[in-house]
Amino acid sequence: MIEWNYLYLYAVDRYGVEQFSSMEQKISYIRDFEHNITRDLEAPFALLTLSIDDTHVNILTSEDLKSAIDKDSILDRHIVPLLASKDKNSLYAKVSAAMLNGYASIADEIAESRGIELKSSIGNSGAVASTIWESLHVLLVVVIRGLTFLLLPLLAGFKGVLKEGGFRIGRIRRKGY
Fold first, then answer.
1. Domain 7-122 falls in which CATH fold?
2. Strands (E), the chain
3. Cα distance between residue 19 and residue 144, in whole Å
4. Which of 102, 123, 174, 177 is in the most buried spot, having the most CB atoms within 10 Å?
5. Measured between alpha carbons, how far is 167 from 148 in angstroms, rounded to an integer?
């Protein structure tokens, strides 16, 4: 049995109180801040960091885990979409869900890269839900376009008349009636 005890989360409202005059200055500060967190961590480690006010999320790993984790995929598929979603959930609820998804994805990828079968896992339910949601959007577009093309011949008996900025639908009348 292999134990994994070095997967960390670090989430705060703001990394510091400094105001930055440029984006380069802000990025440099955040890199230094993250370096200060990781310098005392024992390898192997993976660290998911998030600062709400700085709108920053990152995954840092020790050298021996860099190849085990696809950082961009985890951020793009499991974390950022939850944080960027426009829904009724509060910002902190989205942060909580994003951090949980990120943590689970990191653990799953590390286990897979080491050939470890996890007894239990949250899995990639965030990716599955995202895929289902995207599929429903595509299906909706296809159905609407299909209905449009099916209904156009039925609507051929009607014409639109542009009158004083409005659009009026009227029945086409044949001569002699």
1. Diaminopimelate Epimerase; Chain A, domain 1 (3.10.310)
2. 7-12, 46-51, 56-61, 158-163, 166-171
3. 48
4. 102
5. 18
Sequence spans of domains, the chain: 7-122, 131-171
Q: Which two tokens stand for residue 115?
A: 């050939």
Cα–Cα nearest to 9, from 56, 52, 43, 58:
58
CA-based nearest residue to 73, from 102, 30, 44, 113: 102
Q: How far apart are CA 125 and CA 69, in angstroms?
A: 18
Burial of residue 10, with CB atoms counted within 10 A of its CB: 0-12 exposed, 13-18 middle, 19 or more buried:
middle
Picking from 53, 166, 69, 63, the residue whose alpha carbon sits closest to that of residue 112 is: 69
Structure token pair of residue 26: 């802000």
pLDDT tens digits, 71-126: 999 999 889 988 888 888 888 888 888 899 899 999 899 888 888 888 877 765 55
Coil, helix or strand for 53?
A: coil
